[in-house]
Write a structure and sequence with these properties.
The protein is α/β, with parallel strands linked by helices. The chain has one domain: Response regulator (Rossmann fold), CATH 3.40.50. Helices cover about 40% and strands about 15% of the residues. The chain is built from 5 helices and 5 strands. It has a 5-stranded parallel sheet, sandwiched between helices. Helix 1 links the parallel strand 1 and strand 2.
């Protein structure tokens, strides 16, 4: 896994995970993708992975610990506070978007409604964060 960037996707909906995986397979991006079905699994992976993710795509609405609470935990963590997090949601309410940015999300994206839009968003988001952005270096291991 260390040769290619690792992208963590936190998504509880099986159909959305399938579409996101399909989008990745059809994309031009070279990365490893790890899917977590909920916040608890994402936290387990973050604690246990030998490779640090270079980006997290985080669903807003998750069972148990919600997306906002997971984002708060990530931002409070010395180990993960610089991890780029792109939150996505089918809800486009101003209050939700403002709260996400207040808590430290790097971007908020509406969930696409079809596979073609998922593919476009996948390529755009991943290309930006892993090709064009400049991220801080970690002391224990680089983010990329």
């Amino acid at each position: 896994m260390a040769d290619k960037p690792l992208l963590m996707v936190v998504e509880d909906d099986a159909e959305h995970r399938f579409i996101m995986n399909w989008s990745y397979q059809k994309s031009t991006q070279l990365c490893n993708v790890l899917f977590a079905e909920d916040a608890e699994q994402a936290l387990f992976y973050l604690d246990d992975l030998p490779t640090h993710p270079s980006l997290m795509l985080l669903d807003y609405q998750l069972p148990g610990i919600g997306g906002m609470q997971l984002l708060q935990q990530i931002r409070k963590s010395d180990k993960w506070k610089h991890l780029p997090v792109v939150m996505f949601s089918q809800f486009h309410k101003k209050e939700i978007i403002e709260e996400a940015y207040t808590l430290g999300v790097n971007a908020f994206v509406g969930k696409p409604e079809n596979r073609g839009d998922f593919l476009n968003i996948w390529n755009t988001v991943f290309d930006f964060w892993n090709t064009h952005s400049q991220l801080p270096k970690r002391t224990d291991q680089t983010i990329r």
